[in-house]
Amino acid sequence: MNSLKTALIVLAGVLIVGFTISLINADQLSRRLQAVQYEFHITDNELQHVSSERDTLADVNSFLLAREYIVDELMLRVDSLHARMRENELRNSYYGHYLLIDTGQNRFHLRRSFGNGEDILIRSGYCGTGKGWTSNDSGAVWNFSTPRGLRYVVKTGENPYWYRPDWYWQEMNLTPPEPDEYVVIPDTLSWDDQIVYYRDSLSAEERIWVQKVPGVLGEYKIDLGGGILIHYGIGRGRNISHGCIRMGSADLEALYRALPVGAPVIIY
User: Fold this and answer.
1) Which residues of 88-124 are buried (b: 16+ CB within 10 A; e: fewer)?
2) How is the chain split into domains, by residue range?
3) Who contacts 42 (Cβ-Cβ below 8 Å, separation ≥6)?
4) In angstroms, how far is the first alpha carbon of the chain from the final one?
5) What is the residue-wise DSSP string for 148-163?
6) If DSSP states are collapsed to H, E and C, what string results for 212-223?
7) Does the 95-267 domain belong in CATH 2.40.440.10?
8) pLDDT averaged over consecutive 10-residue blocks of the chain (268 residues)?
9) Model-level pTM?
């Protein structure tokens, strides 16, 4: 496994170095062509030869540029393969519930391991995972992929709030508000009443400027660290989220009840 990952890293490095060198060489040849032609009045045959070298390097540049995505795709596959190998290790060493997240099929599988190489499927269903690279009209780019690999439940909670980050507004081509520009829901209300207030007492435009949003994550959250949560959300069965894992209400509650802090979550 390590040799495969090392080989892919080397391949990525070779492609990047080759791309950089070819760009430098193409620029140097272009400058050389102009300088030589101006200073020495070279013949047409000599000019064609130098031009041919430059065109060949330009073709190489185009080839490498068109295939840059291959490196990212290979690394994702390596991470997914490594995660699946960790699943096999868990079956032999871990006792208890653990979770599998398939970002390709957008499905989850809650399983229970008995620590002797055997486990059973407890619950399975659809989830929503990260939508990958995205951009706004002004050219800002984000990678909203769900990270692959082995993670652990670091925290759980009930009645969570979603704190909108700056990219929420930037993705919609809006300027993030200053702290005094936020629309604030009265904290004297209960969590359930705050949800009603958000939905019924605020206009659609006002809701956009609420930073601390109640209810949108569902009644539970499972924190995997690094800003990645398992929470309620729409779009299950698709790559739609900003990196978090979206569940239906019943599935989310089942996972919340089954997975304690420290439980493994394998994402591939």
Assistant:
1) eebbeebebbbbbbbbeebbbbbbebeeeeebeeeee
2) 2-66, 95-267
3) 36
4) 15
5) PEEEE--EEEES-EEE
6) EEECCCCCEEEE
7) yes
8) 55 57 60 56 56 60 54 66 78 92 97 92 98 92 94 98 96 95 97 97 97 98 97 97 98 98 96
9) 0.72
